[in-house]
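Quick one: Class I SAM-dependent methyltransferase from Bradyrhizobium niftali, structure tokens please.
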Amino acid sequence: MTAQDPFAGFKAVQKEAWSLFTPMEVFTTPAAAKLVGFAGVAAGQRLLDVGCGTGVVAITAARRGATVRGLDLSPVLIERAREHAQLANLDVDFVDGDAESLPYGDNEFDVVLSQFGHMFAPRPDVAIGEMLRVLKPGGTIAFSTWPPHLYVGRMFAMIGRHLPPPEGVASPVLWGDPKIVAERLAGKAKGVSFEMDMMTPSALSPQHFRRTMEATIGPLIKLVAQYKDEPDRLKSFGAEFEALISEYFDAGQNVMRQQFLMTKARKA
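--- reply ---
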């Protein structure tokens, strides 16, 4: 981030809020393997994981023999990613940085991935431009995102009603709409394909899951903090949130059913 970045303040808030995401890695780890497999990552490839969080995608790719770098806005999550790499005896270069200003050269990577990461950059055109800039012609770009009409997409829409983003910040869930993704990649990538999959976080009840989400998901953390001195509004939001969770909670299996979209394309 620089002083000229109009969203520097927004990103500073994101950096702090997402620092508590670590416990969710137990759920994102299986999805990481699905994205790496979907992208066809192979030994010897140079790969970048954008918005890498705790490194679950990067480390999964490194285990396949790729040479991997990972970048995230949160230094706290980057430190966790480094711990994971050390434990797995893998050499992965993790740095804290901005998806809208990647510190890498043009055409540097064979593969660029992002699991629920780049979608939170405020300007989609800037983020995708950077991801494609560092990707070699013919290289693979692939990412996982949340469709707007399903649980996580609806959750972010609900948050936005209570806590509207700054002017000019695009909704992250638009990255989960295949039509919009195709438009954003038009003329820049070819062979665009999509695949749906499912994440199934465990939970004892909708109330338990709400508590977990409110303690780990950046925008929810900020929203709860905003309502800390307004108990009636906080209670009303909690009831609204639990009602949404209940639509996707499988009481017979003690899991949430969270479908996500994977996109893959080749740089033109």
